[in-house]
């Protein structure tokens, strides 16, 4: 037996142990990024779920890009105007992505007080706002709000939030 072999074996074992620890940490991180993974999935099932989740996100991103292009084609000043020349109702889109709720709202520049009201509705319904952004393009204001359930066990009642936000939007219209 060669003395060099005995020292390389523990080194290989240590390297393998470190590799397994890194892989375990990466799998744990991957599982935390996928919505609706309360139950323990096997590694192949977790990878399949991650792959399908990425595909869904890409599809959603493409839809949003197409929608943005359509709005840009319509022009900055005329996108919110109806056939009679007046402003149309604001556009509200609510997307339930498992544990995350995305609220997108497009309004005219004269409807700036809605941002606070949307926050209030989300908080009253048990949602915690994770991130929010507001941008103005021409005569339009774009709101994007991402929220998650304040209590994971209870969750978020999307239909109730949708109803309340639609009532709010029509009230301000």
Automatic annotation (TrEMBL):
A GO term from the CC aspect: nucleus
Protein name: BHLH domain-containing protein
Record carries keyword Coiled coil: yes
PANTHER family hit by this protein: ACHAETE-SCUTE TRANSCRIPTION FACTOR-RELATED, BHLH DOMAIN-CONTAINING PROTEIN
Single Gene Ontology BP annotation: regulation of DNA-templated transcription
Subcellular location: Nucleus
InterPro entries hit by this protein: bHLH_dom, HLH_DNA-bd_sf, MASH1/Ascl1a-like
Coiled-coil region: 47-81
Listed SMART domains: HLH
Predominant subcellular localization, coarse grouping: nucleus
Record keywords: Coiled coil, Nucleus, Transcription, Transcription regulation
Residue span(s) of domain BHLH: 7-57
Keyword Transcription regulation: yes
Pfam families tied to this protein: HLH
């Amino acid at each position: 037996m060669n003395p060099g072999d005995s020292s390389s074996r523990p080194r290989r074992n240590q390297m393998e142990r470190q590799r397994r620890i890194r892989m375990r940490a990466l799998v744990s991180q991957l599982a935390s990024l996928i919505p609706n993974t309360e139950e323990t999935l096997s590694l192949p099932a977790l990878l399949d779920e991650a792959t399908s989740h990425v595909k869904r996100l890409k599809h959603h991103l493409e839809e949003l890009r197409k929608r943005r292009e359509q709005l840009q084609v319509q022009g900055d000043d005329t996108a919110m105007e109806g056939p009679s020349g007046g402003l149309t109702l604001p556009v509200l889109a609510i997307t339930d992505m498992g544990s995350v709720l995305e609220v997108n709202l497009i309004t005219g520049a004269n409807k700036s007080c809605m941002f606070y009201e949307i926050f209030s509705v989300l908080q009253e319904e048990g949602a915690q706002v994770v991130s929010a952004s507001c941008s103005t393009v021409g005569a339009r204001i774009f709101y994007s709000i991402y929220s998650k359930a304040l209590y994971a066990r209870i969750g978020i009642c999307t239909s109730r939030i949708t109803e309340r936000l639609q009532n709010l939007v029509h009230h301000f219209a």
